[in-house]
Structures are given as structure tokens and as C-alpha cells.
Inverse folding.
């Protein structure tokens, strides 16, 4: 019997109370009873987003980003897309698909955007309508400083909207869309919110909502139509009833903990994983670490794929590296419901795996570092 | 304590084993273990669809129809849209939104398409690229004869694809997309498949897949990209893991029953509801009855909204009429997990409700009719 553990940057372990809520009998979505449940979820979700209103979609996180750009950036507009990994690359593809004129800022994996490069790019065009960026770039473990990106945008291209993929950063990294002046923030259910995959969320600033001219067509992902329905606590299409039950349950846990505490805890856990891994001969990969995932370089001479397989043998699923990073990168995460003992478990397993692969490690060397970082938490 | 019953044409009651599957711990979607589960669901789903391959989307049913049209009908193409109710109207709106040239065949509510009108419409244009129709039009309870529609299309506009909204007909009404020559068939999870809302399904014929030129852009709903992933038992975006567990459980129940038996049972149940209601002074509304829903006209002088409210008082949720049909139409349904005793319960409650509203009904008059229709089933 091998106990299963999910230590990947999404999907993540879902708390039993959330799974229980998910399995409640279906109710009709056009009832007063469901409208109350929907209203509660909406209001709690806005608190976790630190905004006033979030649109909920029955879809996965990528759909939220698509919905956000289609609802606020005019067709054929010129957009700057920061591409620092697989998700940045995805948004370049999305923008190209819909016929936007894409100015791509390509950044080496593991690095964050050079603010001067961004500034120059904005300076050299006077008609940028939007800037697309990831917040936590899950493929590289980098947390982009979207607050500073928004400040630079305000200085150099005040009309440009700032669109942020916060799929893996929501409820993991500090994120204050209103205070920071972000215009579109997209997220999904299966990361920091510790729900199964299947819900997508999108926030739009008032000026993004006001941008309603010359938009590309949209239908299922038309969040302007959704907004009208959701302001009446309904949805334009059939509501994902059971996922909304579960959303309520997960949000209760997060708000009970306090969103700022959640951010601090995630940052601490990721730091504990990284520091321990460094003590075991791995290297932190991200220039600016995302609290959502610990991107680690395998020790010299060790294949990251063997590390992933070593974890799998122990019933633990972590993420490997993508594309060219497959051989050297591995990406464990303790998100959502995961706690400090999960961090210790993860590090203990990493020690075992590396030892098995021939790295000479004194007993509990990594775990000692983790426990020190976690002290008092 | 009022026991809750969901007798609406979706969402429907979900079997306990399906709810239990839904609440299983999340696993990572990029694992061999999940690929097996996904492959099993895909294969069973194809059997229920009577086709070889169905694409699964994390979205609601409408998204499947959108994905189908975007993947197979060239941009700006001329399409005939059969509008016989709220869902027909939705597809006219969808086609207009994406810039198709829409020739609308508008049909009075409660009626099915006049084949001669369709034939003439196709004859008078030589460049129709697609015909959009509902199969079961949930708003009116009409089942359109999509088999004959496809035959007429073949005769008059052999190049035109036939796109069918089967959201409420899948696993309720006989549906043989391959045999009948349908090109796009879209469905959702919360009706005959007796799952919670949140999955959308779409079948494309080989000639629809071959139609890959000059398409409108799509990204999240790009089923050509999904097809490539799903042929490897993966998904382009994060798989809705828990809904796939539940899908497997629901498909097991349906296939164990046999899809033809399911069709027969649904037709019989709906007939039992309609015959009983007629005996109680209601009138069947649909010219050609869909097994997915019993659309009924309230007896003269009785408001349908009062009937819906009378059911609600008894913990039973049925659907009312939409738009102009609100005052006279009510739409109960015993779909999915609902059985013959649910039909009897529904009819018993209808008797009570009508009696309360002043209709003079001898005791068990409706129930006797229902039991006669159901005899031997």
C-alpha cells in the first residue's frame, strides 16, 4: 500500500470538507437557494482576489485569460507579451490566434523581465493597448513583479491595459489587483484555491470594462454577458453547481486563515523547500521565486526525470521540467491544503531519492534545514 | 423536513455512486494512471454517442456547440439556422456573433420544422455551408427529426454540414450521428448523462474534421488542438479530473443498462407524464415529443407559475415556461437516474397541486394513467 501525495503546482490536494461539498446533491441553478450560494461564493472570492467583483466561468484557467483579453482589448490592437516560459508562450499564441499585433519580449527561462527592456519596448511604440504577462510563471518558478510592471505601463503607455495570468499565484503570492492597478487578472481553481480543476476566474478593472469598443467576437467566454447574469447571482449558461458548493467550502478555509497569512505561509514553505534542496546539492532555478512552486535544478550529473521517477515510486507526484528543461528541472510544490509537515515529507523524500541516485547526503541534512526555516510557523 | 427532488430537464439528480466518484481525491492529470481513466471515459462516451470519437471539454454544453461550429464552418459562411425555441435562438445569436451569414428558419414554439420550408430554403441558396438545429429543444419539449433533416440536407445541399445541439437529447432520445450522417453533435453532462454540470462533449464527422480551411479563430475551445491531445488520452488544458472520474461512473450505469433501453425508458416515462397530465386537464405542448422533457400547457384558467410554485412547496423542482410561455407552460422531466416511481411521484404531486389550484380531480386519476402506461416496464 502506497499512500498517494500530490505535491505539484496544480492540481493540488483538495481538503476533505471541499470534496464533501463537491459531492452534495445537485440543485437546480435557477433557484433562490442556489443564487444565495452563488452570491456567497462570489463575495468570498472577491475578498481572496482583493477586488470588488470576480467573474466565475465553468472552464479551466486558460479560458479566463482568453475571456479577459477578448472582453477588453480591441481587435487587431498592438499588445506587448512578456514570454518567460510555457505560459507566457501560451499567451503569445493566444494573442496571435485572435489577430492581435504581438510585440513579444522573450526572456530566458528562469529569469524575470528586465524592466528597462519593457520600458524601452513601451517607449518605442505609442499605440500599445495591452501588456500580457504571467504573475507566477509555473514552468520556471519565477514570480514576475506585476506591481512594477503596472507602474512602468502607467508611466510609458498609460492607455495600455495590464493583463495578468495569476492562475498559479492566486492564494499563493501577494496579489492586489486594485491597489496595483492591474486591469485583467485570470485564475483557476486547481492551485492555491485547492479545488479540483474546472472553474476559471477573471477580474476586470473598471477601465477594462469600459473598453467595450471593437472587440473580437466571443460567445461562451463572453464575460460581459456573464457579468450581467452574475450581478443577479446567476450565470449566462448552466452554473457548475457542485463546483460552486466546493468553491464556497474552499474559500471559507482560506478566509478563515486570512489571505495575507496564506501568502506568507506559501512563501515560507517554498523557501523551506528551496533552501533544503540547495543543502542537498540542487540549485534554485528562478531568479525571483514564486511561492507557488519550487523550481529546482538537479545536482550535476543527475537527471531530473530520475528524481521525478524516484518521487513517483514513493507515491508522490511532483512536476518535472517542460520542453528543454526536462532533463535538469524538477518542480515540487506544497500549495493549498499542504502544510509544513508536507514540506518536511517532501524534503525527506528528496533526500532519499537523491541518495538512491548516488548523491552522498548525511541523514536528515535537508530536513534539518527545512525545520529550521519553518521554525515557529 | 422536506425531501428534495429535482425533476427538471437538467440539471438532474446524480446517482450516489457518481457523486462518490466525484469526491475522490484529485490526481495529477499528466500521469499514466489518469490517462487510463481518461481513455476509459472517452471510449465509453463514444459508445453512448454511437460514434467512434468524442471530444471532452471542461465547460458547459453551449461551449461544445460553439467549439463545433468554429472547428468546421468557415468564417463568413452562409448557414441555415432552425430556430424553434430558446436554444435555436441561442445558436442564431452564436452564428451572428461570429459573423456567419445566417438564414433563419423561425418556427412557432411547440412546433417542429416544416421539411418543405427547409427544403425550399436550401434550394433557394446554392452556397449553404451548414445547417444548425436543436435535436431536443428543451424550451418547448419538441424533438426535431434530425435524421430527416440530414437526409434533406444531403439531397438539397450536399456540401452543408449538419450541426446538432443534442445537449438534452443525449442518452434520452434515439441519436445515431454516424448512421444518420450528422456532422457536429454537441452535448453536456447535466442531462441524460446524469452528472453535475461542467463537462461539454462534441462529436465531429470525418468530413467536418476535414473542413479545416478559413476557420474563425479559437483557442480554449479549439477542438482540433484538443483532438491531438485527446488522441493521446490527455487534454490541451488541465483535465477536469474529478468530473472525469464521475463521467466514468455515470457511463458505467448507462452502458450497463444499454443505450437503446435508456432511450426507450425515457420515451415511456415522458409519455406517462404527458398522458397522465392530459387526464388531469393539461395539454401536451410539443408537436413531436422529446423524451427529455414533458412540456405541458396548464389547464385553462390556471397559471403555470402557480403549478411550478406548488411543486416547489413540495420540495420538487420542475422547470417553468420561458419568455412568453411563462404563464401557460410548465416542464417536468424524469431524466438520468429518475425511475418509474419518480414518474408516479411527479404525477401524484401534479394531482395535488392542480387540486389545490381548484381543478376537480378524482383521487389517483393521473397516477392510474401513469401506472397503466408504465405497466410491465
Amino acid at each position: 500500500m502506497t499512500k498517494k501525495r500530490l505535491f505539484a503546482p496544480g492540481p493540488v490536494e483538495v481538503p476533505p470538507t471541499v470534496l464533501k461539498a463537491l459531492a452534495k446533491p445537485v440543485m437546480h441553478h435557477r433557484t433562490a437557494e442556489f443564487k444565495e450560494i452563488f452570491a456567497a461564493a462570489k463575495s468570498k472570492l472577491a475578498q481572496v482576489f482583493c477586488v470588488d467583483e470576480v467573474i466565475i466561468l465553468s472552464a479551466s484557467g486558460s479560458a479566463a485569460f482568453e475571456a479577459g483579453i477578448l472582453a477588453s482589448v480591441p481587435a487587431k490592437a498592438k499588445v506587448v507579451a512578456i514570454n518567460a516560459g510555457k505560459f507566457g508562450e501560451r499567451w503569445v499564441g493566444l494573442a496571435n490566434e485572435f489577430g492581435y499585433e504581438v510585440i513579444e519580449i522573450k526572456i530566458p527561462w528562469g529569469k524575470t523581465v528586465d524592466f528597462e527592456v519593457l520600458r524601452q519596448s513601451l517607449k518605442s511604440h505609442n499605440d500599445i493597448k495591452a501588456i500580457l504577462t504571467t504573475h507566477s510563471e509555473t514552468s520556471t518558478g519565477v514570480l514576475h513583479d506585476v506591481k512594477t510592471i503596472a507602474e512602468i505601463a502607467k508611466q510609458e503607455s498609460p492607455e495600455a491595459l495590464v493583463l495578468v495570468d495569476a492562475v498559479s499565484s492566486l492564494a499563493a503570492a501577494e496579489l492586489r489587483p486594485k491597489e496595483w492597478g492591474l486591469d485583467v487578472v485570470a485564475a483557476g481553481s486547481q492551485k492555491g484555491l485547492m479545488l479540483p480543476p474546472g472553474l476559471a476566474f477573471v477580474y476586470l478593472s473598471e477601465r477594462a470594462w469600459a473598453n467595450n469598443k471593437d472587440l473580437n467576437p466571443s460567445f461562451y467566454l463572453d464575460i460581459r454577458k456573464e457579468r450581467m447574469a452574475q450581478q443577479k447571482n446567476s450565470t449566462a449558461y448552466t452554473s457548475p453547481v457542485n463546483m460552486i458548493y466546493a468553491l464556497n467550502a474552499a474559500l471559507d478555509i482560506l478566509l478563515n486563515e486570512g489571505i495575507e497569512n496564506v501568502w506568507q505561509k506559501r512563501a515560507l514553505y517554498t523557501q523551506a523547500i528551496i533552501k533544503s534542496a540547495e543543502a542537498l546539492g540542487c540549485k534554485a532555478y528562478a531568479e525571483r521565486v514564486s511561492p507557488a512552486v519550487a523550481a529546482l535544478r538537479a545536482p550535476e550529473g543527475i537527471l531530473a526525470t530520475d528524481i521525478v521517477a524516484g518521487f513517483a515510486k514513493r507515491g508522490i507526484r511532483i512536476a518535472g521540467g517542460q520542453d528543454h528543461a526536462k532533463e535538469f528541472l524538477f518542480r515540487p510544490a506544497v500549495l493549498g491544503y499542504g502544510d509544513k509537515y508536507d514540506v518536511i515529507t517532501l524534503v525527506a523524500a528528496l533526500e532519499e531519492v537523491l541518495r538512491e541516485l548516488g548523491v552522498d547526503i548525511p541523514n536528515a541534512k535537508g530536513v534539518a534545514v527545512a525545520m529550521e526555516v519553518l521554525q515557529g510557523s
